[in-house]
Amino acid sequence: MKRIFLFFCLACGTLLLQAQQYTLKELVEGRFSAKGIGQMESSADGMHYYQTDPENRAVIKYSYATGKAVDTLFNTRRARECTFDTFQGFLVSPDENRVLVYREREQIYRHSFKATYYYHDVRRNLVRKLTQNSSKQMIPTFSPDSKMLAYVADNNIWLAKFDFDTESQVTKDGEINKIINGSTDWVYEEEFGTTRLMEFSPDSKLLAFVRSDESQVREYQFQTFNRELYPGFYSYKYPKAGERNASVELRVFDIDSRTIRKMDLPLESDGYIPRITFTGNPDELVAMTLNRNQNRFDMYFVNPRSTVAKLVLREESNYYIDADLLNSIHFLSNRFTYLSEKEGYSQIYIYGFTGTLQKKLTTGQYDVTTLLAVDEQTQTLFYEAADESPLRRNVYRINIDKGQPQKLSVRQGYNQASFSNHGKFFVNRFSDTRTPPLITLHDATGKELRVLEDNGQLAAQLAAAQLPQKEFITVPAADGITQLNGWIIKPVRFDASRKYPVVMIQYSGPNSQQVLDRFGTDWYYALANEGFVVASVDGRGTGARGEAFRKQTYMNLGVMESDDQVAAGRYLASLPYVDGNRIGIWGWSYGGYNVLMSMSRGNGFFKAGVAIAPVTDWKFYDSVYTERFMRTPQQNAAGYADGSAISLASRLEGQLLLVHGMADDNVHFQNSVEYSRALIAAGKHFEMFFFPDKNHSIYGGNSRLYLYEKVIDFYRKNL
C-alpha cells in the first residue's frame, strides 16, 4: 500500500513539473519580458542618432545608414572639470556643439521630473553646472540656433545664453500650487500628455509659453506614512469633474527687449491650450485650443508681436475631439496635416494656411491611428493604420501630391514605428501573439537595413516554458448585433472533456484595446497554471473601429461596457469546456470600475471579481478626462447617476476583492473608501486590501508579486 501511495505521489509530482514550466514570480520579475533597445535620439538633420554607452558615461553619435559610431560628443572620463562618473539622460543641441546631461532625477507625476543638469561645451570639452540656482530644473529646451536654453525652476522660466555665459529669469510670478510658467499642471500632464508648453520661434528671437493660474483649483491631500512616527501629507492641485480648472494664457517673451506680451487669444476662461508651436514663420505662433466640453477644436495663427490671433481651423463634434489627434498636425511651407474623425474614421487631411481644405489624403473604413512623421523635402507622410484589422497595425508612407499609399511594414501583426527627423529612417517594432518583438531599422522606402533586436533568446525560453497561446474569438455584444473581438487562453494541460472556471481580464475604457495581435506575457498566464480559462473581450466604446463604435458610450460611461462584459461572459459560459457557474472578472483603473459595474448590473452572473484602483463615481475623477466623455455633473446628472458604482453598490452580487494604493495621485484612495462606505451601508460583505504609500501603479519592492499572489489566491478560493 505504501509503495502504491509513493508511486502515486511521484506520478503527481511528475505531472506538476510538466505543467508548471513557469511561475508567477518569473512572470512578474520579467523572465519572459522582451528586450528593447537603448534610447535613440535623432540628430537635427535626421541622418544620425545619439545613444549613451552601456554604462551611461558617454553620448555617442551613430550613422543611421551604417550603424557605426562616427563621433563621441561627451564622455565623463575625458571631459574637463567633470565632477561625476555617470548620468541619467541627455539632450543635444541642434548644432551638436552642446550636450546637456542630468543627474539626481526626481519624479513629479507620471511623466514630469526635475533634475540637476550639466552643460557640456563640445568644442571646449568643458563641463559645468547649468545653473548655480539651488532648485532643480525641468523641461530644458534649446533654441533653434543652439545659442540659448530655456528651462523651468520653481514654476518660473529661466534663459541661459551660452555665448555670454549668462542666465536670466524670464518670469517671476511662479509659485507652487498657484502660478505655472512653461510647464503644465497635473491634469494637463495626465490627460493631454504634455509636460511642456514653451517654444522658441524659428529665428530664436521669441519664447512663447503658456501661463497657468491654478490658484482657484482646489487642493487634494492624502496622507503619506513612509514609516514615520508622525506621518505627513501630500497636497497638490487636482480639478475634479465640474470643479474649477486652472485658467491659461498664451504669452510671448521678446528676448532682445526683455518684454512679455499676452496674446489676444479668443478662449473661454475655462478652456484649454493643449499645444503650442510655430510654423516655419516666426510671425506665426500656433495655438491649439479646446473648449471645456472638448467638442470644439480651434487652431489660431497668432502674430507674436501684434498679439492678434486669426482662426485658421475649427472642428466641432457631436461627441468630443480626441486631443491626441492634435499631435498629428505638422506644418510644411504652405500647408499642414490634420487627422480627423469627422467622416466616421480617423483619416489624414491636408489644409492650406488659410484654413482651406485641399484634400483628404487617406480613405477607407479603418482608422489611421497615428501620423508618425513628415518629410517636407519629398512631401511624404508616414503613418500607422489599423487597416487590416482593429487587432493589428501597419506602417505606411504616402506622397501628399500623388496620394498613393505604400505599405512599409511587411509582417502581419502589430507594427509600431519611430522616425528620425524629416522621416529619413525609422525603427520598426513588430510582434504578434506568438512572436516576441523584432526590432529593425529601415530607410524611408521601407528597406530593412539591420536587425537591432530579435529576442531570439526569449523565443527559446518561451518554447521551453510552453506558455499557452492566445486564441482570437468574436463574441456577440449585449445588443445581440455587434460582434466584439476577444481572446482566450486555455489552461495548461487542457482537457476538452473538463469544465473550467474562467477569469475575464478587461479594461473597457474609451478608445482602449486589450485584444491585440501583439506579444505580451502578463501575470494572468499564471492563472492558466492554476486551471483557469483566461479570456478578454473589448466591448463597445473601445478603439480602432471608427468613431461610431468608439464614442457610443458618450455621456453614459459604465453602462454598455458592463453589459458587454456580462454578455461576453454568457457566451463563454456556453462553451462546452467552461463551467458557467464559476466565472470571475478582473480590472485595474477603468477596468476596476467596470468590474464593479459589471458585478452590480449582471444580476449575479459573476461569482468573483477583483477591482484594483477603481473609479467608483465619476465626480471623484479629474475634469479633463471625465468631462471629455461625460461632460460635467451639472450638465449630465442622469449619466453620472447611472454610471456611479457607489449608487449601484446595493446591487453588487458575488465575492469582491477591492485593492487600492493609498498614495494614488490619479484615482484617489477616496474612491475605494467611499465605495466601502456604500457597501457597508448596503450590508454587502467584501474583502479589501490597501498598499501603503503606493501610487496608481502599485509598483516597487515586493508589491506586484504580493498583489498577484493575493489575486490568484482569491480566485482559487472563490472560483
Automatic annotation (TrEMBL):
Residues 525-719 form the Peptidase S9 prolyl oligopeptidase catalytic domain. Residues 1-19 form the signal peptide. Residues 93-437 form the Dipeptidylpeptidase IV N-terminal domain. Keywords: Glycoprotein, Hydrolase, Signal. One of its GO terms (biological process) is proteolysis. GO terms for molecular function: dipeptidyl-peptidase activity; serine-type endopeptidase activity. Its EC number is 3.4.21.26. PANTHER family: DIPEPTIDYL PEPTIDASE 9 (PTHR11731:SF193), PROTEASE FAMILY S9B,C DIPEPTIDYL-PEPTIDASE IV-RELATED (PTHR11731). This is Prolyl endopeptidase FAP. It comes from Petrimonas mucosa. The gene is Fap.
